[in-house]
Amino acid sequence: MDLKEIQNLIKFVAKSGASEVKLEMDDIKITIKTGSEDDGKTYVQQMPMGMPQQQMHPQAPAYNQQSPAPSSEEVAPAKANDDDKYITIKSPIIGTFYRKPSPDKKVFVEVGSEIKEGDVLCTIEAMKLFNEIESEVSGKIVKVLVDDSSPVEFDQPLFLVDPS
């Protein structure tokens, strides 16, 4: 199981509302625990199972780690010099970016489109689920940063929005 699959699993568990999920495979044991609703953090614990003792070394890194999962913050200020006045809408999940609800439909938004909070901007397919990405800001689409049907990473910039 690679990092992308684990991140997708974390997102799926967080959206499902489950408080704890345990997954055991041949050589991996993963426990995902979500905190209380107030806390909003997700923790992943991963440790290899069945490791022979002779491979363990006293100064080897610990395999039993807990680290907070990345936040699913969707909107953040842009970093580029020219784009300081724009807001960057970023991908909250890993998946495939689609500008249209289906191949025969119109795109959700284009450059110059006026948007408001709650408007659907695109869909991202992750693990055979199509997630509608809604705007958390109002403004005007200045630039679409990703091509249709392209893979996107967590926190990858998708759109630049002029909030004025």
From TrEMBL:
Q: Which GO terms describe its cellular component?
A: acetyl-CoA carboxylase complex
Where in this chain does the record put each Lipoyl-binding domain? 86-162
Q: Superkingdom of the source?
A: Bacteria
Among the Pfam families in the record, one is: Biotin_lipoyl
Taking the record's annotation, the residue ranges forming a coiled coil are: none
Going by the UniProt record, its keywords in alphabetical order are: Biotin, Fatty acid biosynthesis, Fatty acid metabolism, Lipid biosynthesis, Lipid metabolism
Q: Where do Low complexity bias regions lie?
A: 45-61
Gene Ontology biological-process annotations: fatty acid biosynthetic process
Q: Which GO terms describe its molecular function?
A: acetyl-CoA carboxylase activity
Q: Which CDD domains match?
A: biotinyl_domain (cd06850)
Query: Residues annotated as region Disordered?
Result: 39-82
UniProt cross-references to InterPro entries, sorted A to Z? AcCoA_biotinCC, Biotin_BS, Biotin_Carboxyl_Carrier/Decarb, Biotin_lipoyl, Single_hybrid_motif
Q: In which pathway does it act?
A: Lipid metabolism; fatty acid biosynthesis
Q: What does this protein do?
A: This protein is a component of the acetyl coenzyme A carboxylase complex; first, biotin carboxylase catalyzes the carboxylation of the carrier protein and then the transcarboxylase transfers the carboxyl group to form malonyl-CoA.
This protein is called Biotin carboxyl carrier protein of acetyl-CoA carboxylase
Species in which this protein is naturally found: Psychroflexus gondwanensis ACAM 44
